[in-house]
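Shipment paperwork, digital attachment
Item: protein structure file
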Amino acid sequence: DFGGSIGSLAARGDSRTFKCITHADCPKKVKVLFEGTGEGEGYRLFESVAEHGSVRMALPPGFKGIGAEFRPQVDALLGKGCSPSQVLAELTLSCGEDALRKTRLPNKSKVKARKKALLSSPQFQFETVADMRAWVNKPGRLIRTREEFDAVVDFDKLLVFSDFFFMVPITDETEDAAEGATVQVPAFGFNYGSKRTVQQLGQVMVDRDGKKISAMFDGTFRLLCIDGKDWPLINGGPSTNYYSGPGSGTSEYSTTVINCLFQFVKRECQPAYVHYMSTLKELPRLLGMGPFTPDVVGSDRAPAISNAAVTVWPLAWCVLCWPHVYLYIMQGKFAKKMSAGCTAELRERIEADIISLHQARNQAMFDYLFTVMAAVWTKEGEREFAAYFERHYASGIWSRWFYSASEMPGASANQNPLESRHNRQKKVIGKKNLKATALVVCNHTAPVLLADEGASNAEPHKWPATASVVPRLSGTVAAKSRNLVVNLKSIKAPVSPPAGWPTRDGVPAIMVVFVNAYENKHEEVTTQRVGAYKHLLLGSSPFTPGVSTSTRTKLEKIKKLATGLHMVAVFTATEETQSAFLKKPSGIG
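Attachment content:
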């Protein structure tokens, strides 16, 4: 190592002499010479001037930093998404015991400079739509007809089903832009999958057999880096419940997503999601089947996803992800929207109110609870926050994040199964390949993801793939439920079933049990208590007409009346008495 700047000095014709700094007291020195003047004739030469003899090393014109022996390996590693530190670690490992070769390794700053150059190199990037379409239209890759699809032999081969290009408006953030001004920017990408993932989507539709299907969609970053910026990977598909065994949390059933279609897109936007969902909707036609139409669609708060779902599937019921709303509480995002004078005590009360909204039993109860909360928040000095929360989280489809918002057994307002798939995708790819360049992602990352998703989707315990498989309670939760029920003062069951009540051999087949437990405290179930709960289920006040509810005391009472009473449907058999039934953990559904 002679100081690391020989290349740049040679480019300027510098002829100073440099001393070796790699070995202690090394007498070897080197002089930089310049020969030739015309283009293609110039050489930058190293000449030994010490006791090692005369050594001349020709360098290519414009040489800076990384020698020819390392550059191909450096480019390959950077192309896969390795960091400069990871590149140097791999290079050092490749040198083995060759101490002399190690002395010629580039330093970290040179690798960083090379990475910056590669990110804008057409060799690795899609700089234009034409670059992307040149890759997409490679023979055998773009599939548009059933005949082309049937001709595919490799079930895990990457297949492109459509590409797109849009101009979308974004806020103009340039210095001279007028307030609210927008500019048009390009958004382009492609939708891809494999023969296996398409057939798995078809199997979901076969399993449907008149049952409802839920689906969820989202985008994730850190997989693809083009022009120095991340491109999101959009994916999703039908969700399914499956038995995951004892000891798997509060339920012995888990939910997963059958990822059937993927999209790489430059700029995540509503038109891109519309194109993605439209392609997914028509994908079963490659199998000779009708369109894919989920009954429930789940997403986070991103308007682009929910609005796209409403556009493509107008009859679908859109729900939002409660963990995302809860995350905003934990991250303090809601607190930032409150007034500067909001005390910590008031902020905590409002956040507790938001959590109780998730426990609403139906939409009518949710709407009524928020109406009371908004009035109380306004009295407490948070009028603007109440208006903000109503606009973004308590009106229209944006209010569907309470736990039973899907109105479909087994489909919760929870997107964690898809987030788990994203985490798995990043692990399968590996840290070295995250934020890789376009061609590396398309030729390496995408096929690896497809093969992994196809294998994971095919695990037999996940089928039939419809969310209509209603999870039963685990033994742990059933035991806790039984403990609540046997607390006699906190339960109430009908003595005689009303007219039309389901029976089995003349015995009531369903017994409704009310459990009154708020914040782990049991209270007696009275007729008045059940009546108040009924009013809240209908979205009306549980108090006598004319009683004001816009005080904190009344709000806390309403929250307790709404979320403290639990209505449990107990299914019995002819030979079982109530007491015998309560002794069986598996009997509480």
